[in-house]
Design a protein that fits this description.
Blueprint: H1 4-8, H2 10-35, H3 42-61, H4 76-91, E1 95-96, E2 101-102, H5 104-121, H6 125-148, E3 156-163, H7 168-178, E4 181-192, E5 198-208, H8 215-220, E6 225-232
Antiparallel strand pairs: 1-2, 3-5, 3-6, 4-5
Helix pairs in contact: 2-3, 2-5, 2-6, 3-4, 3-5, 4-5, 5-6
């Protein structure tokens, strides 16, 4: 009876093994993006990974039958084109707003997925496995630790002055939330300006990933906002253990 290896050939079984490993590793990367509900999720990453794996296999083994003494083949040609072409796919998941850029990490994971697929196609399974492990370790372990490192903005407050009774505070908090800031109102003061208009002055602590200075021009443009300034938070500073002092 003809065995599977006889039917497919040992080379075909090896190629199938490479493709299967690429599928498993790229699935792990895709699951992480799908769990975080990113624009490119499981399907995109798996298809990129197995696609680049097959391209690499074709580049390495697909033209062996046409090789002769006077025919030379560069197996790196298709792989080089993958490296160039995958950038266009990654660029499609990057979105730029007025002051924010989103999708860079997802684009980078597509790039890593392509590298995993190419490594599997080249038979470098240990390298592909290590790359996948380091990728997941970076996103699940290192990235949360990095977010805990305080930046220069954690000691700053925004002092916002606006007209009272016109719903400006709601608009201020809405803009901050859309830009990724959490907020805490530290102090509030009401007064009348030189024209007798009732005004409100708040000191707010806005924390988030974008730099705080990007929020200032957005708030100044809001109707009813008179002034926005940045100041040091000397009262609500934080010590090394994360406790207020």
């Amino acid at each position: 009876m003809m065995s599977v290896s006889d039917f497919f050939g040992s080379t075909s079984l090896q190629e199938a093994e490479f493709l299967l490993v690429s599928f498993v590793l790229c699935s792990l990367i895709g699951f992480e993006r799908q769990f975080r509900q990113k624009s490119a999720g499981y399907r995109t990453h798996v298809l990129v990974g197995i696609g680049t794996c097959v391209f690499t296999l074709v580049s390495a083994y697909g033209f062996a039958g046409v090789l002769e003494n006077d025919v030379r083949l560069d197996p790196s040609r298709i792989a080089a084109q993958i490296v160039s072409g995958i950038g266009f796919l990654g660029a499609g998941v990057i979105f730029k707003g007025r002051n924010m850029v989103r999708g860079l990490t997802t684009a980078a994971t597509i790039w890593v997925t392509a590298a995993v697929g190419m490594a599997c196609g080249a038979g470098m399974l240990s390298l592909a496995t290590m790359l996948t492990a380091l990728h997941l370790f970076t996103l699940f372990v290192i990235a949360p630790l990095i977010r805990r490192i305080p930046d220069s903005d954690h000691k700053k407050l925004l002092r916002i002055t606006y007209k009272d009774g016109s719903g400006v505070l709601r608009d201020v908090l809405g803009v901050a939330s859309r830009m990724g800031f959490s907020n805490t109102i530290v102090d509030t003061k009401r007064f009348e300006d030189e024209n007798g208009v009732r005004m409100v002055q708040i000191d707010g602590k806005f924390e988030g990933k974008p730099p705080l200075h990007l929020l200032v021009p957005q708030l100044i443009e809001l109707p009813g906002v008179d002034k926005v300034s940045m100041r040091e938070d000397r009262v609500h500073s934080v010590d090394a253990d994360g406790d207020s002092v």
